[in-house]
Write a structure and sequence with these properties.
alpha+beta; 8 strands; globular
Length: 152
C-alpha cells in the first residue's frame, strides 16, 4: 500500500502546550517532541528567517501539526493553516499551482534557489494553504521523528 499524498494537517496556535492538551483530550492523540529552531525560507519579497516551534501527533496519517503563531509571517493567523502533501516534484508542482491561481507564500529553497519543500501555496478565498513537502527529503525525517527523535 502506498502512503497517502495528504499526510498532515497544520494548525497555527498561540501556544503549543495548551493546544496539545486540548487535542489530546478531544482527539486522543499523543505528541512527539516539540521542535524549536530558526529556519530560512524564500518568500516572494526575498529571503527571511523565522523562529519556528511545532509538534506533530504520533497518530496518523493524517498527522496533526501544531505550529506556534509567528507575527509578520506565513504563520501569522491562528486556526487551520494548511494540508501537508507529499511531492516528488516540488518545483514542478509549485509552478503548476501558481499557474492555476494559487500563489506561493514561502518555501525552503535548494542550492539553485528553487522551491524545494515546505512550499506554501494559498488557496484563494478559503483562508487555507497547501504545503508541498519533498518526499525524498522529509519522509526520512518524519520516520526519525515518529521513532522519538528530532525532525531536523
Amino acid at each position: 500500500m502506498t502512503s497517502p499524498r495528504i499526510y498532515h494537517v497544520g494548525i497555527v496556535v498561540d501556544a503549543l502546550e495548551p493546544a496539545m492538551e486540548q487535542f489530546a483530550a478531544a482527539a486522543g492523540v499523543t505528541w512527539g517532541r516539540v521542535q524549536r529552531f530558526a529556519a530560512g525560507f524564500g518568500t516572494p519579497s526575498g529571503p527571511r528567517t523565522f523562529d519556528q516551534a511545532f509538534v506533530l501527533s504520533l497518530e496518523g496519517p493524517p498527522y496533526i501539526e501544531l505550529l506556534v503563531r509567528v507575527p509578520d509571517s506565513v504563520w501569522e493567523r491562528t486556526g487551520l493553516h494548511h494540508l501537508g502533501m507529499w511531492s516528488d516534484d516540488v518545483p514542478g508542482e509549485s509552478a503548476g499551482l501558481e499557474e492555476g491561481g494559487c500563489p506561493w507564500e514561502a518555501a525552503l529553497l535548494d542550492a539553485e534557489g528553487r522551491r524545494a519543500g515546505g512550499c506554501y501555496h494559498v488557496l484563494p478565498g478559503l483562508g487555507a494553504r497547501v504545503e508541498l513537502v519533498s518526499r525524498a527529503a522529509s519522509a526520512p525525517r518524519l520516520e526519525r521523528y515518529l521513532a522519538g527523535g528530532d525532525y531536523r
